[in-house]
Structures are given as C-alpha cells and as structure tokens.
Amino acid sequence: MDKIRHLPSLQALQALVEVADAGSFTQAAHSLCLTQSAVSRKIQLLESHFGVAMFVRSSRSLQLTAEGEQVLASARSIFEQLHTLQERLSPQQRPFRIRMHVSLAVRWLLPKLSEFYRLHPDISLSIETVATERVEPASDSDAYIAYLPEPSQNSACSTLFEETLVPVCTPGLGLDSEADLVRFALLHGSTDQQTWSQWLAARGGKPREDYRHIPFNLDELALDAAARGLGVAMTDLTLAAESIDRGVLIVPFGQPLKTGGVYSLCLQAAGAGHPACARVMQWFAEQRGG
User: Fold this and answer.
1) How many Å is the maximal CA-CA distance in the chain?
2) Which residues of 80-112 are buried (b: 16+ CB within 10 A; e: fewer)?
3) Cα distances (Å, whole numbers) of residue 205 to 103, 180, 259
4) pLDDT confidence of residue 87
5) CATH 1.10.10.10, the chain: domain bounds
6) Which of 3.20.20.70, 2.120.10.30, 1.10.10.10, 3.40.50.450 is the CATH number of 10-89?
7) From the CA atom positions of the chain, what is the Rg in Å?
8) Helices 237-245 and 219-227, interaxial angle, to 10°?
9) Any transmembrane segments, and where (predicted)?
10) Pick the CATH number of 163-261 from 3.40.50.300, 3.40.50.720, 3.40.190.10, 3.30.1390.10
C-alpha cells in the first residue's frame, strides 16, 4: 500500500503529456481547463517525485530533458493501457470499429450499409479507412479487412471474397478486343501497377512497356478515371460490381482472372468482447462472395 501511495498522480502525468504535446504551459492549461500555475505545480510534483527536471526552460523554447522523455514515454503507455482497459470493460459505450482500405469501403461496403442498419438499427459501425497498400491492424480497432495473397489459416480471419481481376471502361469507348488496348491508357489503382502486369502475363499479352500508363494510388480513383473515359482500369470484379450494374462501367472482353488472393475480415482481441461482435461478424459472413 505504501508503494502505491507514493506513485506519481495520473493528473500530474496527464499534465506532462499535455505540456509536451503543446510545447507550452499556457496551451496545456487551456486544454486541461486549469490555470497555468496549476499545471506548473503538477509538473513540479513530478520533478519532486523523481528528483529530476522534466523540462529545460528558456525564454523561447520548452524542451524535455532526457529523464523527462522517459517519464513521458511511460505516461503515454499508462494512458494507452487504461484506454484499452476501459474499452474492453465497457465496449457497449462505443461503436464496433472496422479498419479497411478506402476503395473497399467506398466500392464494396458503402452500398451495403443501408441494409446492415435496416437489420441492426441498434448497432453502430465506425469505419476507419486507410489509403496505404497494406491495411495493418491497429490497437484502436475491433476488426480489419485486409488483402491477403492467399487465404489465412488464422481462425480469426474469414474470407469475404476472392480477388478476380477484370478490365473495365466506360461504355462506348470503342474497345472491342485486347489488341485495341494499345490505343488507350492503362489505368492503375496502385503504384506498384501489379494487377495489369498479372492480367497481361496470364493472357500472353504484349509487354507492359508497349502500353501507355496512368497510375493512381487508389482503385477508387482509377475506376472514376475509367468512368470518365480516360482509359481502361484493371480492378477486382467485386469492387466494380455496383458501377457495372448501374451501366457506368463495362467489362469489354476477356474472362475474369482469379489470382488466388482474397479479402479477409480479421477479428481483433478488442472486438471479441464487444456486445455486437457476434451479429456484426455474422452479417459480414453473409456478404461472402458478393
């Protein structure tokens, strides 16, 4: 008990984090709804507790000391653990959080959300999108949807749909066969430009150097460019399905190419304890293949 009583206070650690982030006692006081002198006293308590200075102060700058950096790192870790614990113990107070690529959210999930909320009006989904090539799990998400080169053996991951590549363009572009591709720009939805390379190689097409290319970093941008007549995009059939159904895009020729890759929904530890987890996962399971 005596050891616990002599630990630094959470309020003092919070003041340290705010001052370090703001670079100013005045701004930190404003964020904490305290006076500047009150914030200064909390920092002084930390300095007295550890016996070292937290900051090097001058008329123009405020910098953490080496010891202050160590205390700050520990303070951030403590608050992150407390935040994770609170969400684990009281998950009903927040939505079910899903992390995914922005193109997948716009092209695949968004058209389905109205049906989800019709069936589950009491559940709130929080969709976090990323524009990076790879979707990484995050500590503040309950599940994430990632592209995998092959189905995962992890029981926490379930396949939503297989990657199936098709060329798409606007109707009336005048594209009748693969030989016509040399007359149009090949639109890429990622900077590595791998999907067109895979499709051309599988069909024994010309080297990619024989074509004109317009790269984008998102499938969403490439598909929009295709709809505007800028060229021919290579994309996953599932991502383009709604635009094809609406007649905005067409598949001009060729058989779809299955690459072996899949889009999988992976449940994280934080999501397993959420009251809505079972119903959310069941709904996503029902969307498989579509």
Assistant:
1) 82
2) eeeeeeebeeebeeeebbbbbbbbbbbbbbeee
3) 27, 12, 17
4) 63
5) 10-89
6) 1.10.10.10
7) 26
8) 30
9) none
10) 3.40.190.10
Contact status, residue 102 vs residue 131, Cβ threshold 8 Å: yes
Look up the pTM and report it.
0.67
Rounded mean pLDDT of 109-123?
94
pLDDT over 50 at 3, yes or no:
no
Sign of CA dihedral 62, 66, 72, 77: positive
User: Token pair for residue 50?
Assistant: 């550890």
Mean confidence (pLDDT) of the chain: 89
Say which residue the tokens 């094809």 belong to: 244
Over the stretch 7-49, which tens digit does the pLDDT of each residue have? 788 888 989 999 998 888 888 888 888 888 988 999 999 989 8
Q: Strand, helix or coil at 286? A: helix
Token pair, residue 209, equals 């150097």
What mean pLDDT comes out for the span 158-186? 93
Report whether pLDDT(77) > 80.
Answer: yes
Q: Could you tell me the CA-to-CA distances from 162 to 241, 249, 290 in Å, in that order?
A: 14, 21, 10
Mean pLDDT across the stretch 169-189? 92
Separation of alpha carbons 150 and 144, rounded Å? 16
Closest CA to 101 of 239, 289, 285: 239
Which amino acid would we find at residue 29? A
> Among 261, 247, 219, which residue's Cα sits nearest to residue 108?
219
Cα(78)–Cα(7) distance, integer angstroms: 13
Report the distance separating Cα 100 and Cα 50, nearest Å.
Answer: 43
Please report the pLDDT score of residue 283 as a whole number. 96
In the chain, CATH 3.40.190.10 sits at 163-261
Confidence of residue 2 (pLDDT cuts 50, 70, 90): very low
Q: pLDDT class for 215, splitting at 50, 70, 90?
A: very high
